[in-house]
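INTERNAL TRANSFER SHEET
From: sequence group
To: structure group
Subject: Secreted protein

Please process the attached sequence and return the structure record in the designated field. Keep the field labels unchanged so the import script can parse them.
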Amino acid sequence: MKSMKVLFVAAALTASTLAMATGGGDRTFTRMESARKVSMEAFQVAQKQKAEAAVAESKAKATDRTNG
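Return from structure group:
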């Protein structure tokens, strides 16, 4: 009888561990990938705006030199 109790306790602990192990890893990974994608898009937009501002500034300087 005592060995049956030990077996039941071991089975219960093993089952609960396995049930928790498959929890939310996929959801967490999906959320992480989504956040990475959004941040990369925002970074690319910022870099593009920065480059366009630099081009516009250099054109303005070139126009000032020819007019001045």
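Handover comment: Residues 29 and 35 are 10 Å apart (CA to CA). The two ends are 102 Å apart (CA to CA).
Transfer complete.
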